[in-house]
């Protein structure tokens, strides 16, 4: 992995750009509290593509200015990074918070989107879910990241994955411990501002939604709603899993995503 840093016009962002020059570009956005290393087990899915993966504002090696953040700001960061690298159009794939950013990007920059992959993400939060995230942010600020470490790991992975300590579990266990309480609060506020449901019908690009029936962060009925509202969406289930299904089933996820991308890139060949 060769991580570089570049000024996107607003902040300096850590990123890696790999794969054959001139190939269709896939932009990868990780989940809350992780970083571009999230995608390591999934790189086989993108073989033959130009792959841009980066650390979201407040995460990893990217700048962490004082929050709160908004999803619009985080989507603008992605667009600014692509501008700085001379990338005009992408297949955009995001997990959880990354999926919320991907939806926001799709609505703000439709002309820059070749296709969309939304993984274990949601288009809306209830008042109770917003209150939960704000309470967790207070816990992190008052008690440090260890105060929320256990509940988050239980939310993200099945008990079996934790017992077996699969690679994805170990990665997230380490990633959350490196996440600052201040960035936790700033990114949580961005998620609390999520409101894309009413506009999902505007997304016309081919879309793959990867979901889990027992996901506590993106309930089954919300995943089904998203698939119904986005005109060209396909819904695929990965189970058994909790919120980070791609890390529990990397091989199955890779097959799903690769088949989708190969089909989508044939329909939109001028992606660079």
Structural topology:
Layout: E1 4-7, E2 12-18, E3 25-29, E4 50-54, H1 71-84, E5 90-95, H2 97-108, E6 113-119, H3 127-143, H4 146-156, H5 159-164, H6 167-177, H7 181-192, E7 207-211, H8 220-229, E8 233-237, H9 245-248, H10 250-267
Parallel strand pairs: 3-4, 3-5, 5-6, 6-7, 7-8
Antiparallel strand pairs: 1-2, 2-4
Helix pairs in contact: 1-2, 3-7
Folded structure, characterized:
With 272 residues, the protein is an alpha/beta fold. It has one domain (4-267): Rossmann fold, CATH 3.40.50. It contains ten helices and eight strands. The protein has an eight-stranded mixed sheet, with helices on both faces. The two termini are 21 Å apart. The model has no long low-confidence stretch (mean pLDDT 96).
